[in-house]
Specification:
With about 425 residues, the protein is of the alpha/beta class. It has 13 helices and 14 strands. The chain has a seven-stranded mixed beta sheet with strand order 6-7-5-8-9-11-10, with helices on both faces. Helix 3 links the parallel strand 3 and strand 4. Helix 1 packs parallel to helix 4. The longest helix is centred in the middle third of the chain and has 36 residues. It comes from Brumicola blandensis. Keywords: Coiled coil, Cytoplasm, GTP-binding, Hydrolase, Magnesium, Metal-binding, Nucleotide-binding. Its cofactor is Mg(2+).
Amino acid sequence: MFDRYEAGEQAVLVHVDFSDENNKEDVNELQMLVSSAGVKTATVLTTSRHAPHAKYFVGSGKAEEIAETVQAIGADVVIFNHQLSPSQERNLEKLVCCRVLDRTSLILDIFAQRARTHEGKLQVELAQLRHISTRLIRGWTHLERQKGGIGLRGPGETQLETDRRLLRGRVKALLRRLAKVQKQREQGRRSRKRAEIPTVSLVGYTNAGKSTLFNTITNAGVYAADQLFATLDPTLRKIELAEVGQAILADTVGFIRHLPHDLVAAFKATLQETQEADILLHVIDYADDQYRENIDQVNEVLDEIDAGEVPQLIVCNKIDRLEGVEPKIDRDDEGRPIRVWVSAQEGLGIDLLKSALTECLHKTMVQHKLKIPPNEGRLRGILYNLNCISEQSYSDEGDWLVDVKMLESDWNKIDKQLEHRLTNYIL
């Protein structure tokens, strides 16, 4: 059903430089995306416009130039660095006589190639189906009208209508299966919360070095490469942090400017690891000239998935590519870590990162020794359910002496539930 690239295809890339900042894209990023998809760039055509052309997105003269270039080179596909409407895509295909893909289709194809887990494949298929649902007419122009006659009378559906109905059914089935996966993830998160294991989620622009950092910290052996969207499926590993104990580190899919909404919706279950994390490690490729714009794009996506309020620790990565920059921790006026300078590739500053992470997480944990009277059975039940008890014993009077360690948010929640304040029981 889906167009898939084969190695060795020749592509003509088209980049339009708009005066409007919101529509601006990076031509170098397009070339990296095309390379990640396994396609060879034959040539790059650029033009400038104030607004997209209604019929061809580019002007009619530039569209003719694209058609001539495709014929001269013998290109297999034309790839635009922008989002095209279905009608613009069809008009261009008629003119250039080869496949035309926009930025969204290109990203979806890369995701389709990289999906390894069952969940990842379901999410990519869902995103692809939602994207092509508006483009189905392209493949069924020969069956647009209903047919009549002996042996051809039927339910009165065109082939296009039948295909749309089947597609809707498949989308519903995928959503049901992803809902089941989401429940399983939620169970895992609840059990981690009960065990008081904090979650740290790696976020950042694609190719910022998240998977390399993940491997350096955990020795997980996750696939890492100098290409966009090397990581698609989320990976979770336990790490040990001084004074905090065990924590979960999650490696997630990288973000990109103008990330397709279909992808954000499809990857909601995966991105929930980011939403419900105790802290985000925002990894930045500090050697990239556009790192400031990339930071803004990541924060935009975090706001879109309701993770904008989760505390962040900035990780300035790839300092080995910069002169005179040493591993260090930057702190705010109150002495809290806000930025760590590291090189995941060379292993520089990793101990400093763990130290800063310990400080950030340790401040969210509380540790107390409590003396609980025998009549407080409800409180005992709550503490057992939270699995936050490290040591326990009994006094001669029958009081329960217990050492507890839990998140500050849980301590405050229990405090509100009880008739007597928890502080009354602290030894």
